[in-house]
């Protein structure tokens, strides 16, 4: 199930990955993707995932056998969940089925998990990860499975107010403005003016308060928005729509953030509107 929450309208897409990796022993391995404003998740296996880094905080839970994750400094081979901080370069080298949860670090859900991250990459076995894994092992693929999984993810929210969450009301206002305009690329100058800040001061505060650059946050928004267009537009049209200079720029950014190119993604996927 692949869902987008854009401007209050819920657009639901089923993503069927027709590709079967010969190295995955279980031919019934699921491949599912779900995207919302504050988080997105994937269930399946990656064999050719390249080194990449992204804005989101990531929780990876192996579901069948071990999972191998490599960074510049270490390699983890484990059957336990792994939490990866924002902007850490890594590579998933295992084709075994696993669950991958990406969380917006500026959201309260992201804040909850970021608080638990004591290192750039770490194994983590706590009640929330155990509850998620129990549900995931039910091996569902219907709407009820997705609804219940999303409900579990939303349980683990810091529930802090925006002002406590970020500390600076001006950046809180900036994030609210960005959330209200997810379908367009907003220049830093426009958001800075909305917050009554100079552009340079806004960019400094944004990085200080959220831990990532404004450019990185906007890039993630643009790439996330692109998923809903794959069945409708060419890669070139998507690139221009999302504010990239051309399809090569879009493909390069997509690969850097997700570890595979849009064309590789399209080769193994088929979208069906429901």
Taking pLDDT < 50 over at least 5 consecutive residues as the criterion, the unreliable ranges are 1-29, 270-274
CATH topology of the largest domain: Jelly Rolls
The average pLDDT is 78
Helix share, percent: 25-40%
**Structural class per helix/strand content?**
alpha+beta
Number of E-state strands: 12
CATH architecture of the largest domain: Sandwich
How many discrete structural domains? 2
- Spatial order of strands in the largest sheet: 3-4-10-5-8-11
| Proportion of strand residues | 15-25%
Q: What is the rounded Rg? A: 18 Å
Topology pattern, helix = H, strand = E: EEEEEEEEEEHEHHHHHHHHHHE
> How many DSSP helices?
11
- Characterize the main sheet: 6 strands, antiparallel
Write a brief structural summary.
The protein has 274 residues and is an alpha+beta fold. The chain is built from 11 helices and 12 strands.
Task: Explain the overall architecture.
By secondary structure, the protein is an alpha+beta fold. It is globular and about 50 Å long. It is built from eleven helices and twelve strands. It folds into two domains: 2-155, Jelly Rolls; 162-259, Homeodomain-like (Arc Repressor Mutant, subunit A, Orthogonal Bundle), CATH 1.10.10.60. A hairpin with a 2-residue loop joins strand 1 and strand 2. It has a six-stranded antiparallel β-sheet with strand order 3-4-10-5-8-11. It has a three-stranded antiparallel β-sheet with strand order 1-2-12, with no helix packed on it.
What attributes does this structure have?
alpha+beta; 38% helix; 2 domains; Jelly Rolls; 6-stranded antiparallel β-sheet; Arc Repressor Mutant, subunit A
């Amino acid at each position: 199930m692949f869902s987008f929450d854009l401007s209050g309208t819920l657009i639901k897409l089923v993503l069927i990955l027709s590709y079967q990796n010969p190295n995955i022993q279980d031919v019934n391995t699921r491949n599912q993707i779900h995207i919302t404003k504050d988080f997105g998740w994937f269930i399946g296996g990656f064999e050719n995932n390249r080194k990449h880094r992204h804005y989101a905080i990531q929780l990876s839970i192996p579901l069948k056998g071990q999972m191998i994750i490599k960074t510049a400094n270490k390699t983890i081979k484990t059957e336990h969940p792994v939490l990866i901080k924002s902007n850490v370069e890594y590579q998933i080298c295992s084709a075994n089925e696993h669950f991958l949860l990406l969380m917006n670090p500026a959201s309260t859900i992201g804040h909850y998990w970021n608080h638990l991250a004591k290192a750039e990459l770490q194994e983590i076995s706590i009640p929330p990860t155990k509850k998620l894994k129990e549900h995931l092992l039910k091996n569902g693929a219907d709407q009820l499975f997705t609804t219940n999984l999303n409900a579990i993810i939303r349980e683990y929210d810091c529930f802090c107010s925006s002002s406590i969450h970020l500390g600076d009301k001006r950046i809180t206002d900036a994030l609210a403005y960005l959330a209200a305009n997810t379908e367009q690329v907003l220049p830093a100058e426009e958001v800075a003016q909305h917050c009554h800040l100079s552009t340079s001061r806004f960019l400094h505060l944004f990085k200080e308060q959220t831990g990532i650059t404004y450019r990185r946050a906007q890039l993630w928004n643009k790439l996330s928005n692109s998923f809903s267009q794959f069945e409708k537009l060419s890669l070139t049209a998507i690139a221009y729509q999302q504010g990239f200079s051309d399809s090569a720029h879009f493909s390069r950014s997509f690969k850097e953030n997700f570890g595979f190119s849009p064309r590789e993604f399209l080769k193994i996927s088929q979208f069906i509107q429901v």
